[in-house]
Amino acid sequence: MRMRKTKEPCPGCALHLARCICALTPSLDLRTFLTLVVHTKELKRTTNTGRLAVRALKQSEIVVRGNGPVDLAAKIKPGFRPLLFFPGEGARELTKALVAETDLPVQLFVPDGNWRQAGKVAGRHPEIAHIERVMIKAPNTATEHLRAESSPEGMSTLQAIAFAYKELEGTTAFEALNGFYLAKLHATLVGRGLRA
After folding, report:
1. C-alpha distance across the termini of the chain, in Å
2. Which of 65, 116, 141, 152 is most buried, with most CB under 10 Å away?
3. Phi/psi of residue 54, each to 5°?
4. CB neighbours (10 Å) of residue 124?
5. Residue 24: what pLDDT?
6. E strands along 76-131, which residues?
7. What's the pTM?
8. Are 23 and 183 in contact (CB under 8 A)?
9. pLDDT single digits (tens) 6-60
10. How far is 100 from 159, CA to CA, in rounded Å?
11. Quick count: other Cβ atoms within 10 Å of Cβ 17?
């Protein structure tokens, strides 16, 4: 069943103003730099969580694709180890051991959108074909989701970033980001009448 769109959503968290979670936004200043590569259509969805990650992380940026050519290679920051967060063949599991292979801080490129949109990032941007791909291999054991997931490992963008930052930055960063995701999930489910 298609849910009704939120009327007059909060411009920050995209929830109904009565359920706004902006006051719960973490403010994390970490070594890792997040580059969120989001499809323009995804930014209009109230269930999008990638933009919440950017709001929570001081070292972050949004790159919007789908409105014309975008050169992602130009976004690679000097002095950082670029990693493309993208599950699939050839992707290494993101672990603390992988992170420790170099002293350089990580720039994590994260495609954001539905699987069809996000899946095109690697293929349509050959300029970043050389960037090492990483993934979280643990299955998502959550029983509630913002959207239906197409695979056992599927999770929302903010949720996936939280698990990535657990390996990149530690438990404190994970708890802050995952807690923010859970607040978004709870407020969304309340709006759907699935929680009190």
Report:
1. 20
2. 65
3. -65, -35
4. 12
5. 96
6. 81-85, 92-93, 106-112
7. 0.89
8. no
9. 677 899 998 989 999 999 999 999 999 999 999 888 888 888 899 999 999 999 9
10. 23
11. 13
